[in-house]
Design a protein that fits this description.
The complex is a heterodimer of chains A (589) and B (193).
Chain A (H helix, E strand, L loop, with lengths): L1 E5 H11 L4 E4 L7 H6 L6 E4 L3 H13 L4 E6 H17 L7 E7 L13 H7 L3 E2 L4 H17 L4 E6 H4 L1 E6 L16 H4 L3 H21 L7 E3 L2 E8 L1 H10 L3 E5 L2 E3 L3 H10 L2 E5 L5 H8 L18 H7 L27 H9 L3 E3 L24 H12 L2 H4 L2 E6 H17 L5 E6 L28 H8 L3 E5 L4 H13 L4 E6 L17 E3 L18 E4 L7 E4 L9 H5 L5 E3 L5
Parallel strand pairs in A: 2-3, 2-4, 4-5, 5-7, 6-7, 10-11, 10-13, 14-15, 15-16, 16-18, 17-18
Antiparallel strand pairs in A: 1-8, 6-12, 9-11, 19-22, 20-21
Helix pairs in contact in A: 1-6, 3-4, 10-13, 14-19, 15-17
Chain B lengths: L5 E8 L4 H14 L3 E6 L9 E9 L12 E6 L2 H6 L4 E10 L6 H4 L9 H8 L3 E4 L1 H8 L5 H11 L5 H11 L5 H12 L3
Parallel strand pairs in B: 1-4, 4-5, 5-6
Antiparallel strand pairs in B: 1-3, 2-3
Helix pairs in contact in B: 1-7, 5-6, 5-8, 6-8
The chains are: A alpha/beta (589), B alpha/beta (193).
Amino acid sequence: MKEILSGNEAIARGAYEAGVKVACAYPGTPSTEILENIIRFPEVNASWATNEKVALEVGIGASFGGARAIVTMKHVGVNVAADPLFTLSYTGVGVNGGLVLVTADDPELHSSQNEQDNRNYAKFAKVPMLEPSDSRECLEFTKLAFEISERYDTPVFLRTTTRISHSKSVVELGERVTGLPEPHLVKNPAKYVMLPGNARGRHYVVEERTTKLSEDGCTMPINRTELRDRKIGIITAGVSYQYVREVLPEASVLKLGMVHPLPHQLIRDFAAQVDTLYVVEELDPFIEEQVKAMGIAVIGKEILPICGELTPGRLRKAFGLPEQALTTVEKLPGRPPNMCPGCPHRGVFFTLNKLKAYVSGDIGCYTLGFMPPLSAMDTCICMGASIGMANGAVKVLPPEERKKVVAVIGDSTFLHTGVNGLMDMVYNQGPATVIILDNRITAMTGRQDNPASGHTLMNQPSEGIDLPLLCKAIGVKHVRTINPLDLTECEKAIREEMERPETSVIITDKPCVLIKRDGVFTPGTVLEVQEEACTGCRACLKIGCPAIEWIPSSGKRGRAHIDPLLCNGCDVCSQLCKFSAIQEAKNER
Amino acid sequence: MSDKVTNILLVGVGGQGILLAAEILSETFLLAGYDVKKSEIHGMSQRGGSVVSHVRYGKEVHSPIVPEGEGDLLFGFELMESYRALTLLKPGATVVANDLCIAPPSVLMGQETYPADLAAKIAELFPDSILVDGQQLAINAGNARAANTVLLGAVSKRLNIEEKYWLEAIERMVPKKALDVNLKAFAVGRSLA
């Protein structure tokens, strides 16, 4: 049957068809929808892990137990999972327990903090990597990845990019394999206990495996030579293959389905058949440098950008082809993303700005606290870093500035890797303030449950972690929970804790307005601006709420207006109005 | 079937239902027997930012994104985003734009003004354009929330695909209880000249 699926949906389908029993992930754009789609198949035990390292460890355990397992994450998630990954390469997988690790990279940084090229991880960890070019290949390569994993006793990377994960194309569906052996305990400590004595021997196995894969790759159908005009030959993979076919339809192509290890002889043969050889790849010169190291003349980053994603237009430009003349339009106001109306983070960032805090930020919706008019974030590096960095800052700053340091982190990010930072801060007696923005959900990636939300990925009730109790158990003496929508309470709490020369934690206690589960979020009464009372002072505009609009033509010097369809009745704006001009709307929507 | 690939761009503001409309387009082209590709960015863009979705169909489609300056049809859900996206179109392209203005943050805060006369500017650059009062026509059809389907009807009229495939795709993608009003809204959009 034919269906049109996104790359992520196709990977989920491929994992199902491959007989996968366990799927585990931490959400991260553009990888999130793989696990969200896999829950359609009750045969698969799917779960959100606290972080990517734990997700991979769960996958390894399932593999060693003898079941096929898939673990998915965004590119930077592999940084977190790198520790088990590198040694997993040595142990190999369990008997009949293929393990596939999906890394979803994000060239152009559509929704990420960097654009690292995770093909480098394949080479670094000596793990084979497949790279599909569309959804059909996402499904087929996922199944093939499990076969390779078991045949060569290795974990296998499946690498996508945003344009593969989030593009849809036509896919042919198959059936789930049957007859895979049932999991059972297999003891083999010499292979699975990586003490130096065992690991030394395994390193040789890894090197032999890579050599064998490179040789066998020359005859794998996923590494395919397409001979057309011999003047130009292009080595390419992933979405770049599609751009090559779009822009240079006559060129000969060596399409690599496996980007590590490279099939050396196949590359030599292809190079010998074409006049000029190019590598077309996004980000790093990963293939190019290896081809050059083989002593083959090839053109790559001399004409192609390292930064950003490729597009048909950029490829056209690189090859000196005539470019389309583009229509020009007038400069327009930008439209950046914004926190939602009623978002519980808004009042916190307004207050941090007012108190001139130095905000050590983290990854989540609240990173938008950086945007004007809230403008209350000073650093953001990676998941969980806010607390450790705050602790480092207070070690060096003079006492008056030390007070200004506040770490801000979401509930899911705190449990991901922030909690380790807090343990360190308590242990080493760092006097910074930590605010945990507990909105009961992993919001930015599209509202996924987490260990504090009280539900699992399979929508089963679960023990929600008690964040205040957790902080106290770590040893934080000053833990307080506040209503972030009450600006007076918010300012009092943050001011007092900033003054305190000890580790303290403030937990905000209001849910994300987008949570659909019954009884979690209830909107307040819609507000409206009383025109006669509004003096046009603009105080309510300082929180940047999308429901509040400045109407320059209203009244003598303009007035504010609240869109009743957008307002969630959080009441933060009315607390800023000195003239009591913002009141509950008379006509409920 | 010609080898030519048709390039459609759907643009608007996060939360407007652009992704569902793009799904219905893709499903229609698949039903009509074409190869289809669709691409968009999730994540940050959902928080009220600009959204662009690419849908391409033809005998064989390679790139999932529309090559720069090769858009054949613009399906605009918001006026300023429609105007912004004109740079993606080829000369003489068709524009179907919703007559709806959503103020971006800088305009909400009174730091910039929403640009004036955008409809006229679009029509000047792309004479084959139609501005649709999606909201009002949807209210006439029975529900303001079917505005996107009115626009879809107007788009469908400008693509050479049999009506039955559109109707089948809508039936597949729209919840049952909203089907009647959506079919009505689609017919309204299709009747626009």
